[in-house]
């Protein structure tokens, strides 16, 4: 089968590569640099295992769609903050670009996450401009993507999939295409249920992270350790509390719940969960303020601007809100992230970022941070404070370690460095 995959980002590129094992695949992206890189077999972003597969794959990339049997759309669906709705401009333009190539018997499949009803109310009317009718002349289906960044390749192949077609024939044709690489089960439904299911999954996770964050704040008040408490509670056979943290980022969980609630004012728990998670950067800053309260012109160092551990993606990262809030309160902020290259603020080397700092704030739980010798690293700091929002740092007793959700003394305890520091201590 000839397949045209539109949008070659974190989802479209691996999907195109996996499909290309059994199909003839052309990948399309509006960004010429992305297209050029893919044709040169260079990965435009980092995702484990993908560089090797791209190297071996037979896919070609282009800036414009080509005639095909199937068109699979994997373009971004960002969140329009002003109106709290899904912004479907990329989906619209991708669908428009298919219209001149759409032929009888083709199938159009949307993978992008959209609000319920978008396939019928937005995609179908645009595709009708071709003169063809969905369900009569061409097939239309939604197959939401559920793979998790950091383990995309494995999850794309082994996760169960949900496919909803505009009619049974569309569902079955989409199923046949995905069965060429999906090893998990493929469950079928109608097109709007498929849209709704995807949003429910991410909303479920957002609400449960909000619960963990609220419990972390309560644990501090109760003067206990939330990480120990959660691990004990999770020994219950029907309890699985998620991890607290500095807030929810990424362009899925931090935005998809709004896609579900955009057409109603009836939602309470979903909105509250969003508010709790969005308030976490400010809560983390309140802890930093206590740790640095007697320090004049404090400098803090953010470790990790990726929205979560071990990814290079900083979209909707809680680090950005934390940094902006800290700067607005007079903190000088330096940042270090060995994985991220695209970020709207300057990133420093680890040594530069830590030099003269008063507090390191761990925002992303990169594995690399778990292995660092913070005692040694802080020898070039001004004060030896670490605020760990992810429970990844172990103290060797030579620095003040405060963890989110723990009762430890939040005031800076000055512990002399192992080696003499050349820098004057100002407080
Ligand atoms: N990243 C994930 O882990 C993930 C997981 C599940 C679902 N999703 C959903 O999948 C969709 C894609 O997400 P992503 O992370 O791959 O986005 P991305 O930003 O990494 O990639 C999208 C690509 O589409 C291209 N593009 C935009 N408009 C285009 C057009 N009209 N024609 C051709 N190319 C166009 C962009 O240049 C970009 O390279 C979104 O709806 C997202 O919510 C993402
Ligand atoms: C239902 C589900 O699993 N959906 C996944 C999700 O992928 P994701 O990478 O966005 O998801 P997470 O790993 O949950 O991270 C989100 C943010 O939440 C923080 N977090 C996480 C767990 C925790 O216990 N405590 C936290 O604080 C974390 O740091 C980060 O900021 O959406 C994709 C697109 O739709 C899906 O395809 C993919 O299946």
UniProtKB/TrEMBL annotation:
Check the record and name the Gene3D superfamilies matching this protein: NAD(P)-binding Rossmann-like Domain (3.40.50.720)
List the catalysed reactions.
UDP-N-acetyl-alpha-D-mannosamine + 2 NAD(+) + H2O = UDP-N-acetyl-alpha-D-mannosaminouronate + 2 NADH + 3 H(+)
The UniProt keywords, alphabetically, are: NAD, Oxidoreductase
Q: EC class of this enzyme?
A: oxidoreductase
State one Pfam family annotation: UDPG_MGDP_dh_N
Single Gene Ontology MF annotation: NAD binding
List its EC numbers: 1.1.1.336
Q: Name one GO biological process term.
A: polysaccharide biosynthetic process
Describe the location of the UDP-glucose/GDP-mannose dehydrogenase C-terminal domain by residue ranges.
301-395
Q: Give the source's domain of life in one word.
A: Archaea
Q: In which family does this protein belong, per the annotation?
A: Belongs to the UDP-glucose/GDP-mannose dehydrogenase family.
Q: What is this protein called?
A: UDP-N-acetyl-D-mannosamine dehydrogenase
């Amino acid at each position: 089968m000839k397949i045209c995959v539109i949008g070659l980002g974190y989802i479209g590129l691996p999907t195109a590569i996996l499909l290309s094992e059994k199909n003839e695949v052309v990948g399309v992206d509006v960004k010429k640099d992305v297209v050029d890189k893919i044709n040169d077999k260079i990965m435009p972003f980092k995702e484990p295992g993908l560089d090797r597969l791209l190297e071996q794959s037979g896919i070609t990339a282009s800036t414009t769609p080509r005639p095909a049997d199937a068109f699979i759309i994997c373009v971004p669906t960002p969140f329009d903050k002003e109106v709290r709705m899904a912004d479907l401009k990329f989906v619209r333009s991708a669908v428009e670009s298919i219209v001149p190539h759409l032929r009888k018997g083709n199938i159009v499949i949307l993978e992008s996450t959209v609000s319920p009803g978008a396939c019928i109310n937005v995609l179908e009317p645009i595709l009708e401009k071709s003169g063809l009718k969905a369900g009569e002349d061409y097939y239309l289906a939604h197959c939401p993507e559920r793979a998790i960044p950091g383990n995309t390749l494995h999850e794309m192949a082994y996760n169960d999939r949900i496919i909803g077609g505009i009619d049974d024939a569309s569902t079955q044709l989409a199923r046949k295409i995905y069965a060429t690489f999906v090893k998990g089960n493929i469950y079928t439904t109608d097109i709007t249920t498929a849209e709704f299911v995807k949003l429910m999954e991410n909303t479920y996770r957002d609400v449960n992270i909000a619960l963990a964050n609220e419990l972390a704040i309560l644990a501090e008040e109760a003067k206990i350790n939330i990480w120990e408490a959660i691990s004990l509670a999770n020994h219950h056979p029907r309890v699985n509390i998620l991890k607290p943290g500095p807030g929810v980022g990424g362009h899925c969980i931090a935005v998809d719940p709004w896609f579900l609630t955009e057409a109603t004012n009836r939602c309470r728990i979903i909105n509250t969960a969003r508010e709790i998670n969005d308030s976490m950067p400010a809560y983390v800053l309140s802890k930093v303020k206590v740790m640095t309260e007697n320090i004049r012109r404090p400098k803090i160092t953010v470790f990790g601007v990726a929205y979560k551990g071990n990814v290079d993606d900083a979209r909707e990262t809680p680090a950005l809100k934390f940094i902006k809030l800290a700067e607005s309160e007079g903190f000088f902020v330096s940042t270090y992230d060995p994985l991220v290259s695209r970020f709207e603020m300057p990133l420093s080397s680890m040594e530069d970022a830590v030099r003269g700092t008063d507090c390191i704030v761990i925002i992303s739980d990169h594995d690399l941070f778990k292995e660092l010798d913070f005692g040694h690293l802080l020898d070039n700091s001004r004060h030896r404070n670490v605020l760990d929002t992810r429970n990844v740092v172990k103290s060797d007793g030579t620095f003040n370690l405060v963890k989110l959700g723990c009762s430890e003394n939040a005031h800076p305890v000055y512990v002399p460095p192992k080696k003499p520091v050349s820098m004057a201590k100002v407080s």
